[in-house]
Specification:
2 copies of one chain form a homodimer. Chain A is mainly α. Chain A has 2 domains: about 400 residues, no CATH class; about 150 residues, Transcription Regulator spoIIAA (2-Layer Sandwich). Helices cover about 65% and strands about 5% of the residues of chain A. The first copy, chain A, has a 6-stranded mixed beta sheet. Chain A has a two-stranded antiparallel ribbon with strand order 1-2. At the A-B interface, α11, α20, α21, α22 and α23 of A face α10, α19, α20, α21 and α22 of B.
Chain lengths: ~650, ~650
């Protein structure tokens, strides 16, 4: 009697438990329908295009119409936000930072313009209009706008294929300006249509490799100025450039240029070393380029070294940016190519600017709005292309100087631009005797910062496949061309995503001691397997045509091997497939699942499924798989084990 | 005193719990190192290349050397396995199936040879050698080997670009034979190097669309025979073919051909309908094509209809397959193109054969070995190319007949091949008057089975993006070309994988009532959120450069929105990121994670991580993220909630 009561009690507990299980399994099976593809599409479009939808009150609310306009203006022109609280102390800091920035910016801009195969004044023009516009529209407080090395290299490596800069410099320049216009249009469009994620498609690893390769290529290009070579190659790959240098060294080069350039390069590098050791002297490396320019110009002027073969800048056109609206070449036969180059340049420029902006924003703890940044960059380049500027973006080296100099807002960019305007009006004649070798030295001195060996080692340590993308970009830029390097990096990055996503594999799970948690037995060696149940989890987020069959075979192999392992005695009765990893499944995946069920059944095993995600359970229901596998769908592995073994026991 | 005791007790339980938590967190943090990339690579190569490594004893074991050889031979020539148990009753069934098969195969082979723009006898040759070799080496019992429609179409749509079949039929034929050789080489290589997964890259959905498109294209090609058109287009897209038909209908066509073809097409379709209604009459549709050939040939012979414009086959060369070793064109200037076509044909042929083999194996409940199948297919095509056969593979329609006719082993293929040999020796002259329209009718009658509208609807119901791949293949084949259709299908399939893998998103989790299970609150509406804790799970299997930033912003938005939602009162103290979905993370993902931690910290929230997978926790440790986020890594969400809130309470 007592035993019967106990048995009944057991039975009741068992029933209760089973009811609990059944209820939870019902939760899984009766989940609401997931949003359809269409709903997801419209939802994500709405979310990306109108991320601030909730922040703007609707126009119906008449009283707040002016408020809406103001908040809209604030969003478009962030200067209105920070301007109101701008104080004299802020300005003092920004003034100092702006002046330091200008002293670095003027020689760099001239150097980058020559790197882009443009006249020197175009570099200065580009340091006037774009920084002013960015100051009004940008959201970063630390970024320093102007011409940068990588973009200059991109332009000078791609546009000469359309127009020879030496044979036809005016047409070449017009194409550069047109490219700038297109780059601006693309950047503004990315921002307006909230396509900021496109910039993310250049992975961090790829950028590290690409920039390092570009730095070496830029450095080799500077040999032209440093050695005073007159005829140089238009190609950018290492081998062609080395050949050109080799040929030049045997024919026409001038040691004066080399000695002059190297001495000032040494000087700049020493100041940088001093600045690094003593943080208070941060301004020393920042103004060293300007000092070099002044000293070397004086030297050449006094010694008349230009008569002895030292190449000098000569004429720089005086005066502010001229209009270039009529120089944009929309009827050029190469217009399609130009637009393509504009797109590449737009993406690379944005990538650099946003990386710079994010890293300093993260240090200071404020938020930069990626889409607004793109709009700002776009407008500054569009307006730049109307005013004789070529593509400007955020420079890493100058932003770092700006940051060290204690800038507080984008006002430092305005100060810098005004300083450049004054220089353009007053001091261009003074630069007549500036030796080209000094410009080369200034560019060369900025390059070591671009080759980030430490980061490359870090990437190698963390992720070998990421390092492959990094190395691919590096080698591509170095030995093929800039575009091929970029293409290699993007391709490797996406192939990596495919490989990881479809990599087939299955891990065996075991129960962690004294818990109801099931984990990979390889990752958690303390996890214990149940001899009657084989618990398997698919090792990828996607069960699709490319891996479903492999996964099926692997599971069958695991199931039959385990059986064989136990000396011919059949012990596995249930195979539980934990689907908690699976984000999605496709038609082939579903077919494989049904085949797996049939194969297991013909070997006398049962298949159970646990914790399918929303999309997955929906598809399994639509494809009728749930009924095909006998409704053995559970929320947790524990329940599945209990239910399946319980049923087996009952059957025995 | 008592309250103190209770408190102490509570404290103890709390301590115990915390110790338990700490221990489990240690399990997470101290997992053994995951296999390195190199180990995984070599491991997966070993596993795919030597899947049977354990089955063969090592050679050291001298006594079993002969055993090893035998088991090796059994693996290469499965016929030795089933031959020993082969009984007379088996043979009776196979004989019947083989004869039925032959009666369908002879007219189909002739038709497919004309579809491939070859002389009719080449179709018959292809039904001799390949089935014999497959019977010795193949592992499927039901597959019927020979020429098939889709492969014939592929050849006749790609090779004429290299050589005009009308201007230079011998060279064209030699190129087809060379393509067959390459296809065999590729197939055998796939099998030997265990690259079977390559065949999976054509997704089920893509195949459905591709085959349906190909069927319509093949059907349109048959209009040439059915209308008795002499000049036809070499292109395969619908528009060109329709134009060619339109032009022909207005100039030169013969109604006798059309009437003859249509009447026998109707006859074949009626027999099929009868066969479907009455399963016992399955042989009726199978022999209907042969009956049609005999009747129509007699009709033409008796009425001398060939004098009135009915086109007939005329001469079919008598005798067995001649050698074609010297006709392989390895010095042809198009050899690269030929190899490429060989690769495409190899993949398509394998895809069809393996799909056929798997589906019948699954019905009968036996296992076919994908790699051995590929080796068998490869050898049969290589040897076929030496004996005047073009590419053979498993035909779906004939395999179905074979299955219905009750075949038991590959012996039915041998019976069929012998029957074809006898026909080649004795009956080719009888086919002189066979009208070409009948061949067209036979091919046309086989096509409806290839357009699987039901499956297409199924795909649409289950997965809209899969349907896109299906539709892309269909439209590509129909309106562009066969290769473009294939390319479209493969591209769409892989783009889909990328989109699903990097689709950024985050789901909010809540605790299911009366459990310690945390689930997506959208999927499980009964899940309850804790106002102090925001639990988020990344909605993709990969946190990488392409989605990491988006995910970070999304989480920040969720965290700040939830805060705003609760009327300005800050309640969220902890953000728990459940990583159980994440298969892998890259350098950009890790950077984003650190940034997320900083951003949350500057808003006064803590970040905790739960259940990172093996690769992920390894990378987080290597990149020092675990210390950066204050060691808040837990095994389960429940523990993370308890630990974080507990710590917060203690701090208060």
């Amino acid at each position: 009697m007592a035993s019967l009561a106990i048995e009944t009690g057991h039975q009741e507990i068992h029933d209760l438990e089973r009811n609990g299980h059944a209820e939870k399994a019902q939760w899984v099976l009766n989940a609401p329908e997931p949003p359809s593809l269409w709903q997801e599409l419209t939802g994500s479009v709405r979310e990306t295009v109108l991320p601030h939808a909730r922040r703007f009150p609707t126009v119906k609310d008449k009283g707040s119409l002016s408020k809406t306009v103001i908040s809209f203006l604030h969003a478009i022109f962030p200067i209105f936000c920070w301007c109101r609280n701008y104080k004299a102390t802020n300005f003092k800091n920004d003034l100092l930072a702006g002046l330091t920035l200008a002293s670095l910016c003027i020689p760099q801009s001239i150097g980058y313009a020559t790197l882009a195969k443009l006249d020197p004044q175009y570099g200065l023009y580009t340091s006037v209009i774009p920084p002013l516009i960015y100051a009004v529209m940008g959201t970063s407080r630390d970024i320093a706008i102007g011409p940068v090395a990588v973009v200059s290299l991109l332009l000078s490596s791609m546009i000469p294929k359309l127009e020879d800069p030496e044979a036809n410099p005016i047409l070449y320049r017009n194409l550069v300006l047109t490219t700038t216009f297109f780059a601006g249009i693309f950047q503004a469009a990315f921002g307006l249509f909230r396509l900021g994620f496109l910039v993310d498609f250049l992975s961090h690893a790829a950028i590290v490799g690409f920039v390092a390769g570009a730095a070496i290529v830029i450095g080799l290009q500077q040999m032209k100025g440093l050695l005073g070579i007159t005829h140089f190659t238009n190609k950018t790959d290492v081998i062609s450039v080395m050949e050109a240098i080799w040929r030049a060294v045997h024919h026409s080069w001038n040691p004066h240029n080399f000695i002059l350039g190297c001495s000032f390069l040494t000087f700049i590098l020493i100041t940088r070393f001093v600045g690094r050791r003593n943080r208070k002297l941060f301004w020393l490396p920042a103004i060293a380029p300007l000092i070099s320019v002044v000293l070397s110009t004086l030297l050449v002027y006094l010694t008349r070294a230009d008569k002895h073969g030292v190449m000098i800048i000569k004429h720089i056109k005086r005066g502010l940016n001229p209009s270039s609206v009529h120089q944009l070449q929309f009827n050029n036969p190469h217009i399609g190519e130009v637009a393509k180059i504009g797109l590449i340049v737009a993406v690379v420029a944005l990538t650099e600017a946003i990386a710079v902006g994010r890293s300093f924003a993260s240090i200071k703890g404020y938020h930069i709005n990626g889409n607004q940044e793109m709009v700002a960059m776009g407008f500054m380049n569009i307006l730049g292309s109307f005013t004789s500027c070529y593509v400007a973006t955020g420079s890493f080296s100058r932003s770092a100087v700006n940051f060290s100099a204690g800038c507080e807002t984008a006002m430092s960019n305005i100060v810098m631009a005004i300083t450049v305007i004054i220089s353009l009006e007053l001091f261009t004649r003074l630069l007549y005797y500036t030796p080209i070798a000094i410009l080369a030295a200034i560019i060369l001195s900025a390059l070591p910062g671009l080759v980030d060996l430490h980061e490359a080692y870090n990437i190698w340590k963390i992720d070998k496949l990421d390092f492959l993308a990094c190395a691919g970009a590096f080698i591509g830029v170095l030995f093929a061309s800039v575009e091929i390097g970029l293409l290699a990096a993007v391709t490797i990055s996406f192939v990596k995503i495919i490989i990881i996503s479809i990599r087939p594999g299955a891990e065996v799970l075991g129960r962690l001691p004294e818990t109801d948690i099931f984990c990979d037995v390889d990752q958690y060696p303390m996890a214990a397997k149940n001899p009657q149940v084989l618990i398997i989890r698919v090792k990828s987020g996607l069960l699709c045509f490319a891996n479903a069959n492999f996964v099926k075979e692997k599971i069958m192999k695991l199931a039959t091997e385990e059986e064989e392992g136990s000396k011919g005695k059949r012990t596995i009765q249930v195979v539980i497939l934990d689907m908690s990893n699976l984000m999605n499944i496709d038609v082939s995946g579903i077919t494989s699942l049904v085949e797996l069920h049939k194969n297991l059944a013909s070997s006398g095993m049962e298949l159970a499924i646990t914790n399918p995600k929303w999309q997955v359970i929906h598809k399994l229901r639509v494809a009728n798989v749930v009924t095909k596998i006998g409704g053995r769908v559970f929320l947790t592995i524990g329940e599945a084990v209990d239910a399946c073994l319980g049923a087996k026991m009952a059957a025995v």
